[in-house]
Design goal:
The complex is a heteropentamer, with 2 copies of chain A (about 260 residues), 1 copy of chain B (about 375 residues), 1 copy of chain C (about 325 residues) and 1 copy of chain D (about 400 residues). Helices cover about 40% and strands about 25% of the residues of chain A. Chain A is built from 9 helices and 10 strands. Chain B has about 375 residues and is mainly alpha-helical. Chain B is globular and about 85 Å long. Helices cover about 70% and strands about 0% of the residues of chain B. With about 325 residues, chain C is of the alpha/beta class. Chain C has helices spanning about 1-10, 35-50, 65-70, 85-90, 130-140, 155-165, 175-180, 210-230, 235-245, 245-250, 270-275, 280-285, and strands spanning about 10-15, 25, 30-35, 55-60, 75, 90-95, 100, 105-110, 120-125, 145-150, 170-175, 190, 200, 205. The radius of gyration of chain C is 20 Å and the shape is globular. Classes of the chains: A alpha/beta (about 260), B mainly alpha (about 375), C alpha/beta (about 325), D alpha+beta (about 400). Chains in contact: A-B, A-D, B-C, B-D, B-E, C-D, D-E. At the B-D interface, helix 1, helix 2, helix 7, helix 8 and helix 11 of B face helix 1, helix 3, helix 4, helix 9 and helix 11 of D. The structure holds adenosine-5'-triphosphate (2 copies) and magnesium ion (2 copies). The site of one adenosine-5'-triphosphate (ATP) has 11 residues of chain E, from strand 2 and helix 1.
């Protein structure tokens, strides 16, 4: 399958991949949801994952910080192998921030508390320092003035930006986004995408499941297309959009671009 | 050219639609069946209400030293009057009852302090949950700071009823939370232990559990190791209500969206950190009305301790009914008990409904 | 053993009734009086020299044995009848008898009943979990009479049920009848029928298997009976202890020898019992006698040499 | 291939999630087993030290005490096992009757609370709020002691026809079958068969012609009429033993003792109030649109209720109703407090007292309540499954 | 008020209106919700009612089969006057079918049972015959293969078509539709509108509250526009859309046509 060559990062000599999937397989009961995923990302890369519903995009992303367990193959994040070892999992989760479709902010905590929770309890940071850092990231997502409100008092777009700031507060080396804009109104989508573009420009390693093709064209280093649990095609954006190899990809693109 | 549209003025409705006459017609006499029902209801009210008022208020006797002085033909409230202190405090020495009152005032003040913004809520909660019980215990039992020792066998009346209810709920809370977590856990042993405990307790009547607590616990302990009956009954009540509490809390846990668990995991929180910091605070808020309802049932159920020989509020009233001076005041005693229980339970149930409404709108899910 | 536990905790835990005047009854301040209460006080006096070192646990009839078996109480002194089954298979030991009683019937005068033999078809109230329940059954069965049993959980409620007219007859030990009659709306409208249908030796009970404790409780009772026989009362006991020449009395009151040793008590334990609680006769008169509402005659509870059957083994 | 940076320092047995949960579970199991063993060994030692007999052999010994209400034959010389059976039946009977009555009261009061008649709705609310907020035990005491005191002695019984009401209970004539009563039973069976036939026929006819026949009412009529015909043909082979006032009591007739009535009334009025709220909530949970749709199809209000609203409301009603039934069954144990001879009174009361075997008697009671609860909830789960809606 | 002339059906001599509103007024408490409605429909006419939210469209429609009571004026359906007389109400409801916005199918009955319920219980039709008829109408709405499923198992569009078939099963002379498509997804709207158009072509008398202006243009004989409890304007579709008389109507049309 020549067209999945691009699923592996093009590494300079001496450079090593920050995320590496080797022959990863996963089943839900009998259902084979990830099939032989081979895939790697190098530091600073920005990957967009797309594909039809149910194709396993979320599942693959969630394997990276072991919200899901895989059953075969190996996943290495920053050189650490994913297995049942709790220390490893902890170490990786510190390094990987995640932003969910439905934000999943903690409604009983203020914005500031949402952001400082993990730094204080996981990174054992002094409270003051954690708050300063939190305010820094809130400013970066342009929402510092809301710090003392509760999530329920913010709009969806604002909430998602808080969720991004919360991910950043762990000062992760990698950020995962699982359809971060699909629960939002069109005008809020823009707010959030702007924030993400800014992050991308700062050189953060990002894996982003999204169907915002504009975003993909602007910032992605590679676009990965999945279907039925497989990586069908992976390529640089202009190649991917202008010259899709696979008929499945062509069909998919024709649908979402016309929409 | 377009015609301008001006809405016609609204007219007042015809008298057949609004006003007291219409109201009576619609709500009381809208059909032959309703006419019958209305008349029937009026008849029932006529049968019940005037005699009760006559007996309970008009012909009642409020003061007196024995039943013989109740000659007006109505209720003999003098009985309640004379026995009031015993009904409230049991056989607690009357010169020491200030200690109970003080404890009540203290807790009211402490809870009232939640309204003050400047106070650290966590500190206050810890005071109420950890410090206050100790203070209250020594106030009640005595034996320190020159307070006279008061045997638990002298504790009784409404004091004991409230004590059993409050301690039962408060103590069953942590246990119930553990059981709920256990029942939702994916570890088969933890799950089945919690499940068996919860379902066994819920299958049997409280009275068998009280009976076990009052007579059987000592059989299971090594000889010589034994503790106070009140404590044993409290253990029984706590175990009982913790099973129900576990189910209430489980309901709350189930209502928390899966995303919250995932977000906590993704941040690298450990199981216990995510439970204590993220899940339980949300779940508990959701289950407060359920807890208040459990408290109401428990409060009513504490009357059963009477069957195992403790003189709670109802027990004291039953006992006083046998006072030779006051024979024949059974109905007054029961009426008084019913009124007190009713005020407590009804008040709390309204409170829980109000709370439910408040939390319903206040807790936006996302 | 129990004695060590009692000494360690500093008081005797005594199971009593929930209110039978003359036997064990609390006033509205929670002070207990009665002949069963005095039995416990006497034990406390023997152990601690202080009759007040007792705590009381009021028990219903059906709770009482379990409470004793489980160790919740040290002595059960709750007008409990000594029977074969209870002694042999319930894990109980009966000590001495402090009241010889027998079961009887109480009816309302206006029924015109003169004898228990007229009770065919009556409704009978009694308390649950007592020998009374069984005796009643035996009595009616023996005389081939029918009856309707109403077995109520607590004595007080059984009396209420009788008083409210649920039953024609209330049955329990005769002393209990006398006691409960004082609690009726109109005591004089009720009569106690002449028949006694059972033997009811009542006395303190302890757990099976602790012989030292059983001996102690037994002999505290016997000492009181012996004291009455010897004419020692709480009033004159101090004087007698000082003056007595009789070696038997001197031994008894601890003026010489150390009779308490084998019981694990001080030498003056018997002295303390008599001084603090009195002899048996005093106890009886104080709680049940002529000057009380119960107004019971001594009858068979008199000393053996006064026409009764109170006969205590000698203290030697 | 990139270099795999293994981190051996983290590879410890304890850090493995699977191992951790395994260890935790082993520890938990050990604690449970140990506590169980500790309690059990204490128990054994205590029983031995105190000479308390153990085992269930007492069930074969004569009980010696009387029981007021027994639906199977029981005398003082019956065994404890028999007494247990009697008590068990008493518990079952009071629970079953209580459930039936409470359901009726609950449905009536729940509907009354929803009534368009303001006064009726208010009265129902007062009833519900009063009953729910007063402890059941207190209500039992009230129905027993306070009402008992207000009733007349047998001599002055209230009389209605051949029925008597007094402190000793409610008396009614006791039917006694004479020779030839078998014919009446035959007649009854025949009438049932006829009624079933009628219902089947009515259904068939409806399918064929569309005409409705009031089959249920007419079959009731048929049962009554046919049975009566056979009854007359056999020469009225039934005599009534009428209650007679005698010296103490009332003799003859059938009697419902006050203990039974008080427990039944207290249980059913108390639980009925809870059921009323459940019924109300269930009916309100059915979308108003359903009623409108039914009406716009021309269904009459009674049909709308029967065919549309109630079947849907039941879905919501049944789970909480189940727990109320369970509560009622458990609460029947309070009858012990007012001399109703149910399980707790007979087994944990008298039997425990005569035999002293706390473990066995309390164990028996818990077993019975456990299986009672289990069977009610199994039945309800089955019913619930049957009623639940089929969704996508 | 010349522009509401068209609110009354143009009757041929000797013909009589099947629905007639004469000075109908209705209040909810103090709120005057229908004001002096004068309006009639002749047999076979197809009326579309539109107007802003809260203007009383539903209320007026629901007065026709007395789901609502009016307090003043008279409503005649098929010559029978609406009043408290239960016999009249029953008779009218047999003649009037209704389709609701939220379908209101009976979820505890199968599709077939939903359809045969009223024929069996109200029309006293033999069960077999009722089922045959039901199948006939199910075929007409192209859904006969779902007859034994439960409503919960069907899509919204299918449910609404069942609801229409249920209304038809009473063989009514008039069908009322209250925003039958507004709870549906765009593709399902088409399914349902197709069915309605087909009905209209068969000559069924219809009163339809809807904002599907395409539908109105295609099938309506008259369009009635309501606001604030009044009939503001009633006219034939081409007149109504091309040449609205009232400024209120113009404003309303400009809004929904731009949408
Ligand atoms: N917990 C689970 N148990 C069983 N099957 C699951 C589970 N979670 C997901 N699946 C199935 O796995 C497949 C892949 O799911 P996944 O959520 O990864 O898809 P996706 O590509 O993210 O789709 P979408 O765009 O809808 O989010 C789907 O078919 C889904 O039904
Ligand atoms: N049961 C009721 N009680 C009081 N007011 C009501 C009731 N039902 C409707 N109304 C009010 O009557 C007015 C007209 O309602 P109606 O439902 O007829 O409007 P509509 O034109 O159908 O609006 P929509 O397009 O939103 O369905 C509204 O202002 C509404 O709030
Ligand atoms: Mg997904
Ligand atoms: Mg509408």
């Amino acid at each position: 399958m020549t067209n999945t060559n691009m699923a592996r990062a093009q590494l300079e000599p001496g450079e090593s991949a920050i995320i590496e999937f080797n022959d990863v397989n996963k089943w839900y009961g009998d259902f084979h949801v990830l099939k032989n995923i081979n895939f790697s990302i190098k530091k600073g890369e920005r990957i967009v994952v797309c594909g039809p519903s149910g194709s396993g995009k979320s599942t693959m992303t969630r394997c990276i910080n072991r919200l899901e367990e895989h059953q075969k193959g190996s996943i290495l994040v920053d050189g650490i192998e994913m297995n049942n070892n709790l220390k490893n999992i902890e170490a990786i989760r510190k390094d990987v921030g995640m932003v969910f479709q439905h934000f999943n902010l903690f409604p009983h905590l203020t914005i500031l508390e949402n952001l400082t929770l993990a730094p204080i309890w996981v990174r054992k940071m002094p409270k003051k320092e954690a708050e300063e850092m939190a305010m820094h990231y809130l400013e970066r997502v342009k929402i510092a003035n809301q710090a003392l409100k509760y999530p329920g008092q913010l709009s969806g777009g604002q909430q998602q930006r808080v969720a991004i700031a919360r991910g950043l507060c762990m000062q992760p080396r990698i950020m995962l986004f699982d359809e971060p804009t699909s629960a939002l109104d069109p005008e809020m989508i823009k707010e959030v995408l702007d924030t993400m573009v800014q992050l991308a420009e700062e050189g953060m390693t990002m894996v982003c499941v999204t169907h915002e093709m504009g975003f993909a064209k602007t910032v992605a280093d590679r676009v990965v297309f999945m279907d039925a649990g497989e990586i069908v095609e992976a390529n640089e954006p202009h190649e991917f959009f202008d010259n899709p190899q696979h008929d499945r990809t062509q069909m998919f693109l024709s649908q979402i671009l016309n929409h | 050219m377009a015609i301008e549209f001006k809405p016609s003025p609204s007219l007042p409705p015809p008298s057949t639609a609004v006003g007291p006459v219409a109201w009576v017609r619609q709500n009381l006499f809208s059909s032959p069946l309703n006419v019958f029902l209305t008349l029937f209801s009026i008849y029932i009210i006529y049968l019940l209400v005037p005699p009760i008022i006559e007996w309970g208020i008009i012909n009642a006797t409020w003061e007196g030293a024995s039943k013989a002085e109740c000659t007006a033909g109505g209720a003999c409230w003098a009985f309640i009057n004379v026995y009031f202190e015993q009904f409230m405090y049991g056989l607690y020495p009357s010169e020491e009852t200030w200690r109970i009152n003080l404890a009540v005032i203290l807790i009211v003040l402490l809870i009232g302090m939640f309204a003050i913004k400047a106070i650290n809520k966590l500190f206050l909660s810890l005071t109420i949950l950890l410090v206050y019980p100790v203070v209250a215990y020594f106030l009640f039992a005595g034996g320190v700071f020159g307070l006279e020792v008061v045997e638990t066998s002298r504790w009784g009346g409404l004091f004991l009823t409230v004590l059993l209810g409050v301690v039962g709920i408060a103590a069953s809370f942590p246990l119930g939370a553990l059981l709920a977590l256990g029942r939702r856990s994916n570890m088969p042993v933890a799950k089945s232990v919690s499940l068996v405990f919860i379902e066994t307790i819920r299958a049997v009547p409280l009275i068998t559990i009280l009976f076990m607590a009052s007579v059987m616990i000592p059989l299971f302990l090594p000889e010589g190791l034994n503790f106070n009956k009140l404590l044993r009954v409290l253990i029984g009540i706590t175990l009982f209500s913790s099973a129900y509490m576990a189910e209430v809390i489980r309901g709350g846990l189930q209502a928390i969206p899966k995303g919250q668990y995932e977000a906590a995991d993704a941040m690298g929180l450990t199981y216990w950190q995510s439970m204590v910091l993220v899940i339980l605070p949300q779940a508990l808020k959701l289950v407060i009305p359920g807890i208040v309802n459990s408290f109401i049932s428990l409060f009513k159920d504490t009357t059963l301790v009477y069957i195992v020989g403790m003189f709670d509020f109802l027990g004291r009233i039953q006992a006083a009914n046998h006072d030779t001076n006051w024979l024949g005041t059974t109905v007054e005693g029961y009426a008084f008990a019913a009124l007190v229980y009713w005020i407590f339970c009804f008040g709390m149930s309204r409170y829980s409904m109000a709370l439910e409404r408040k939390l319903d709108t206040g807790h936006k899910r996302n | 053993g129990t004695l060590d536990d009692v000494k360690a905790k500093g008081f005797v835990q005594c199971g009593v009734s929930q209110g039978v005047p003359g036997f064990s009854n609390a006033d509205d301040k929670g002070n207990w009086t009665g002949i069963d209460v005095d039995a416990c006080r006497a034990v406390a006096a023997a152990i601690f020299g202080d009759a007040q070192k007792v705590k009381f646990t009021p028990l219903s009839a059906k709770e009482r044995f379990t409470a004793l078996q489980s160790g919740e109480i040290d002595i059960l002194s709750r007008n409990t009848t000594w029977t074969y089954t209870r002694d042999v298979s319930l894990g109980l030991d009966f000590t001495a008898t402090n009241f010889y009683d027998g079961q009887g019937f109480m009816v309302r005068k206006d029924l015109g009943v003169e004898s228990a033999m007229d009770l065919d078809g009556a409704t009978v109230c009694t308390e649950q979990g007592t020998t009374t329940e069984l005796n009643m059954a035996d009595f009616f069965r023996k005389h081939n009479m029918s009856y309707v049993p109403v077995v109520v959980q607590k004595a007080d409620e059984a009396v209420s049920a009788y008083d409210s007219g649920r039953c024609d007859v209330y049955t329990t030990d005769k002393s209990g009848l006398a006691a409960h009659r004082t609690k009726l709306k109109n005591p004089s409208n009720n009569i106690i029928l002449p028949e006694t249908i059972s033997k009811e030796p009542l006395g303190p009970v302890v757990r099976h298997g602790d012989n030292q404790w059983k001996d102690l409780v037994t002999w505290v009772m016997y000492v009181q009976v012996n004291a009455e026989e010897m004419g020692i009362t709480s009033k004159n006991v101090a004087k007698i202890k000082a003056d007595a020449k009789d070696p038997g009395i001197r031994r008894l009151l601890g003026a010489e020898g150390n009779m308490g040793q084998d019981l694990g008590l001080n030498a003056d334990w018997a002295y303390n019992v008599i001084a603090e609680v009195g002899n048996y006769g005093e106890e009886f008169e104080r709680n049940l006698g002529k000057d009380t509402a119960l107004n019971l005659p001594r009858a068979i509870n008199n000393l053996w040499n006064n026409g009764g059957i109170m006969y205590a083994p000698p203290v030697r | 291939m990139s270099n795999i940076k293994n981190t051996p320092s983290n590879k410890s047995f304890l850090n493995d999630a699977g191992n951790r949960s395994l260890i935790f579970q082993i520890v938990l199991l050990a604690v449970v087993v140990f506590v169980g063993y500790y309690l059990f060994s204490n128990l054994q030692a205590n029983l031995e030290n105190r000479g308390i007999s153990t085992g269930f052999s007492f069930l074969n010994e004569p009980a010696g005490f009387p029981i007021l209400i027994h639906l199977v034959s029981y005398t003082e010389s019956s065994t404890y096992g028999r007494a247990f059976l009697v008590a068990l039946i008493n518990t079952f009977v009071i629970s079953l009757l209580g459930i039936i009555l409470a359901t009726i009261i609950g449905v009536v009061m729940g509907l009354a609370r929803l009534s368009k008649n303001w006064l009726v709705a208010r009265l129902a609310t007062v009833y519900i709020e009063t009953m729910r907020n007063i402890p059941l035990l207190l209500q039992m005491f009230f129905w027993y002691f306070a009402v008992l005191a207000a009733l007349p002695v047998p001599r002055n019984s209230y009389e209605f026809a051949d029925f008597l009401l007094n402190k000793r209970g409610i008396y009614s004539p006791n039917p006694i079958a004479q020779d030839g009563f078998g014919l009446v039973i035959v007649g009854f069976i025949v009438s049932i068969a006829l009624a079933i036939g009628l219902i089947v026929w009515a259904k068939k006819r409806q399918t064929r012609t569309g005409l409705w026949f009031p089959a249920y009412w007419s079959s009731l009529g048929i049962i009554l009429a046919v049975t009566f015909l056979f009854f007359a043909a056999a020469g009225f082979p039934l005599e009534f033993d009428l209650p007679q006032k005698s010296r103490f009591n009332v003799t003859g007739g059938m009697v419902l003792p006050p203990e039974f009535v008080a427990v039944l009334v207290a249980l059913s009025t108390y639980t009925g109030a809870f059921i009323a709220e459940i019924v109300r909530a269930g009916i309100l949970s059915v979308n108003w649109g359903q009623t409108e749709a039914a009406r716009s199809l021309g269904l009459r209000d009674s049909m709308t209720q029967r065919l549309i609203v109630l079947p849907q409301a039941l879905r919501v009603i049944i789970p909480p109703l189940t727990s109320q039934y369970l509560n009622l069954a458990k609460n029947s144990s309070l009858g012990a407090a007012i001399a109703y001879p149910e399980l707790v009174a007979v087994i944990m009361g008298t039997t425990l007292n005569q035999t002293g075997q706390a473990i066995e008697t309390i164990g028996l009671c818990m077993l019975v309540y456990g299986s009672l609860s289990l069977s009610i909830s199994l039945f309800m789960n089955w019913y619930n499954k049957k009623m639940s809606l089929i969704e996508r």
